[in-house]
Amino acid sequence: MSNNNQSTESSEDQSTMLAGSTWMTAGSIFSRILGAIYIIPWSIWFADKYFRANAIYVQGYNVYATLLIIAIAGIPSAIAKQVAHYNALNEYGIGVKLYKRGLSLSITIGIICAGVFYYCAPFLDNDDANVIPVMHSLAWAIMIIPSMSITRGFFQGYQDMAPSAISQFGEQVVRVAYMLVTAYIIMQVMHGNWVTAVSQSTFAAFVGAVAGFAILGWYYMRRHHYYRSLVINSNHKMKVPTMELYHEIIQQSIPFIILGAGTSIFQLIDQYTFFRAMHKFTDYSSIEVNDLYAIFAGNAGKLIMITISLSTSIAITVVPLLSKSYTRHDKAETRQQITSALILFEFVMLPSSLGMAAVAGPLNRLFYGVGHQVIAANVLSFYSLIAITFGLFAIVSAMMQGISQNKRAVKYFFVGTLVKVILQVPFIKFFGTFGPMITSGIGFIVTSGLILHSMNKQFGINYDQIAKATNGILLCSVLVYVEALVTVTLSNRYLAPLMNIDGRVGSFVVTMIAVIIAGLTYVYCVFKSHLADYVLGNNMSDSIRAKLRIKA
After folding, report:
1. Of 446, 461, 476, at which residue does a domain stop?
2. What residues form the membrane-spanning segments (predicted)?
3. How far apart are CA 247 and CA 245, in angstroms?
4. What pLDDT is recorded for position 311?
5. Residue 541 lies inside a defined structural domain of this protein
């Protein structure tokens, strides 16, 4: 009977992971797509100033993203983990108290970090004075986003992902709307200064954050009575003093700072080495180096974040679930959670990355026009593959946090970072624009490999199950890549007499044809081969197969 209960609970946890990942993935994907689509009109309105505008936008945002993670201090993920921990012990009151204490802490830290960012901007501008007003405008967002993020962490501790996903999307809608309106007015109506327009585009982060926080507040008020009933019916056996709660939040959050900032730290290394190394080893002018930086760090970086957000969404869902099974000392369940999460990661990340690599040419022209189109398409195609290592790092580092081994994960991240730093300049010398991407991939592979080795020693990861799923997923993903590439090639050939395939409309048509055909191929492949069963379960997969009339 006990085994049946454990099996049922394991199935429920897997369903919770899938449902949570669905919400977070949907919210994250829509937000990322919206965050990429805005670039089409934005680049048109900036005209010949676009690459310079994008370069200072990215430089300001990279520093902002790192400082924002410090301002948030890893508290959202730490809160989600600890709330899930106390909820599993039926001590809901402590989880609520933890959230309230964390909220006051995040408000204080947000104000301090915003002030530091604002006044230190002249020292962080990378010898480009145009970056300073961009950083000043971003400082405002740092004040409010920590409080918004900790509220998301509270919801995630209950495995309630809908508020986070919807607020994330609402935040992005308002942010993009403000960006486009101000960019159009300044650049097209007033014919104003392009740096001022970029500064207003980055100030949009604050405007969007206010909207996102308002949505979370509405959800919290709707669920207030539910949380209150859980607190009333708790065990009330544990007493945790306020100072101990603060200590618990800070102790849990510090490793989250470093691991959560992993991608941003690597991007900062790129930002503060790329310009100097390229000037030293090449004859490119400052404008040319700026353009190349904008191509890989800005243009390609925005698009690959769409696929990386898939794994990040999974990672957010994994933390509280792993914490729950780890708190119960259920080694078998912890092992299964790790295995399921890795398969789910591959299921969505591999076809997404290979698919983007295949349509890199028309996709790049769709978003960024025909400027530097050959190098830009090659960079995007290559970066799409490297993005797999970014996503893997996101999910395995989240797993280590879920099993309370943050310090070990941080140590492994430092090893990966050291590898990147050592290789960075030599790889820029020999591989140019591709150098920083290669070193990032190597750094994340080293870190992820060390983490997986550690987890395997402790829990015995079911590599046989993962390998069996991986072989099938990889085969289907390669099929997606080949089919998308062939579709792009044929579309370019046969649509050329009918439309301008180098224009945005033509590129959109080519991209959509390739995506639809490749997407349908992947769906058929994973259901026909039963790969979908690993993720959706037998019952749901059988039901979908029947509806799609795919014979098992």
Report:
1. 461
2. 21-41, 61-80, 101-119, 131-155, 176-197, 203-221, 249-269, 303-322, 342-363, 375-397, 409-428, 434-452, 473-495, 507-527
3. 5
4. 64
5. yes
Total domains in the chain come to 2
- Is residue 535 within 8 Å of 347, Cβ to Cβ? yes
As a whole number of angstroms, the distance between CA 476 and CA 468 comes to 13
Residue 163: per-residue pLDDT: 81
Residues of the chain with pLDDT under 70: 1-32, 35-36, 70-78, 80-81, 159, 240, 242, 245-246, 248-260, 311-321, 370-371, 552
CA quadruple 229, 230, 233, 239: dihedral, nearest 10 = -120
Is-contact 79 154, C-beta < 8 A? Answer: yes
Question: What is the dihedral sign for C-alpha 326, 328, 329, 333?
Answer: negative
Does residue 248 lie within any of the structural domains?
A: yes
- pLDDT at position 151 is 85
> Do residues 206 and 80 both lie within one domain?
yes
| Model pLDDT, residue 517 | 93
Please say whether the dihedral angle defined by the alpha carbons of residues 170, 171, 176 and 177, taken in this order, is positive or negative: positive
Where a domain ends, among 416, 438, 461? 461
* C-alpha to C-alpha distances, 348 to 22, 31, 311, 381, nearest whole angstrom: 11, 17, 8, 18
How much is the pLDDT for 2?
47
- Same domain, yes or no: 379 and 501: no
* Lookup: tokens for 336: 């299964």
Q: Is 173 found in the same domain as 59? A: yes
- Evaluate whether residue 123 is within a structural domain: yes
Q: What is the pLDDT of residues 120-171, one digit of tens each?
A: 889 888 788 888 999 999 999 988 888 888 888 788 777 677 787 788 888 8
State how far the Cα of 498 lies from the Cα of 500, in Å rounded to an integer: 7
Model-level pTM?
0.75
d(CA 217, CA 175): 18
Residue 1 in domain: no
Residue 391, C-beta contacts closer than 8 angstroms, at least 6 positions apart: 307, 308, 310, 311, 312, 345, 349, 353
Tokens 């044929």 belong to 490
Give residue 537's domain range: 462-552
**Spatial separation of the C-alpha atoms in residues 542 and 461, rounded to whole Å:** 27
Residues 6+ apart with CB under 8 A from 283: none
Residues 435 and 499 grouped into a single domain? no
Query: Which position has the token pair 């918004």?
Result: 148
E strand map for 19-99:
none
Does 449 share its domain with 532? no
**Tokens matching residue 405:** 């081994």
